[in-house]
Write a structure and sequence with these properties.
303 residues; mainly beta; Immunoglobulin-like; Jelly Rolls; 2 domains; six-stranded antiparallel beta sheet; 1 helix; 19 strands; 58% strand; disordered N terminus
């Protein structure tokens, strides 16, 4: 009835994971949730938890590790848990699905969860809670879902970061659904100083070993002189462009590589926020961006 289930989590390198486990072993925070399967010969405690950082921005992932420890009894059991996050305005948010792990008699197990800080998230302090219970292979024997605080972190900014000297690209696993595209955070990178780019991977690997089911949200701030400007973006598959938060190009669907343009006249020199979203479902992968002033001999504004 109960198989061991796990979430899809952002990848973490072995060194980071090993350090997390070591810190969990060393830095126990005292009992957080005690699970007493009375009559079934097992007692467990979730007694420590850490996050990979203490503060985050929108689009970054909060990685959570927790320790489950067998404390007494005569049997091994499955322990199920789900992390919850308390926002500054107090509502609780579930983090993924229930995570099941088998804890042997006298043993220790480790829980892992991950939450992507959404765009527009409240600034301030967030609490992490745990909700856990115990089951045999055929039935839940302790199902009172105990919720208790175990850690906290801070959201510095609910907005995407817009660097002036490079694109900031946040990479995700694509969900196979344009309406809800990002299923898993991968990483955030600074992608050189070139404003205009043409990245054509064909059927090769794009990043993180993935050739398909991958996408990105790229952002930067650009000082644009007055005049008429043409923005050209290309995508295989979906592509969309925002300028100062306004969606100006939206071709958010599976397609062969194609380019799309948008023209705007700026009356004064000013800084403008660019956000380019792209996903690759299957087959060839290709994304491009170009902006240039009408009659200009060079590509893009001087940066």
């Amino acid at each position: 009835m109960f198989g061991i289930r796990s979430n899809v989590y952002p990848p973490v390198n072995v060194k980071s994971l090993g350090m997390a486990v070591l810190l969990l072993v060393i830095l126990g925070q005292g009992p957080v949730v005690v699970l007493n399967a009375q009559g079934y010969g097992a007692n467990f405690v979730i007694d420590s938890l850490i996050t990979d950082k203490t503060s985050y921005d929108a689009g970054e992932v909060v990685q959570i590790w927790g320790r489950v420890k067998w404390t007494s009894g005569t049997e091994s059991f499955q322990v199920a848990a789900r992390f919850k996050i308390r926002t500054p305005s107090r509502p609780l948010i579930d983090v993924g699905r229930d995570v099941w792990l088998f804890v042997n008699k006298g043993g220790v197990g480790f829980l892992r969860g991950a939450w992507i800080v959404p765009k527009g998230a409240e600034k301030g302090s967030y609490g992490i809670y745990v909700c856990a219970w115990v089951a045999t292979s055929s039935r839940i024997v302790y199902n009172r879902r105990v919720v208790s605080t175990i850690a906290s972190f801070t959201v510095r900014s609910g907005d995407l970061q817009y660097p002036s000297e490079s694109w900031r690209r946040i990479w995700y696993v694509y969900s196979d659904s344009p309406a809800d595209p990002w299923v898993q955070f991968l990483d955030s990178t600074e992608d050189g100083s070139d404003l205009n780019f043409d990245s054509d991977w064909g059927r090769g690997r794009v990043k993180y070993g993935l050739a398909d089911k991958i996408g990105s949200v790229s952002s930067r701030i650009v000082s644009i002189p007055p005049g008429s400007w043409t923005f050209t973006v290309g995508g295989d598959d979906g592509i969309r462009l925002y300028i100062d938060g306004e969606l100006v190009i939206s071709e958010w669907e599976d397609q062969s590589y194609a380019t799309y343009t948008y023209a705007r006249t700026f009356t004064t020199a000013a800084n403008h926020l660019l956000r380019l979203e792209w996903y690759e479902n299957e087959g060839d992968a290709h994304v491009s961006f170009d902006m240039r002033q009408s009659g200009s001999a060079h590509d893009g504004p001087e940066i």
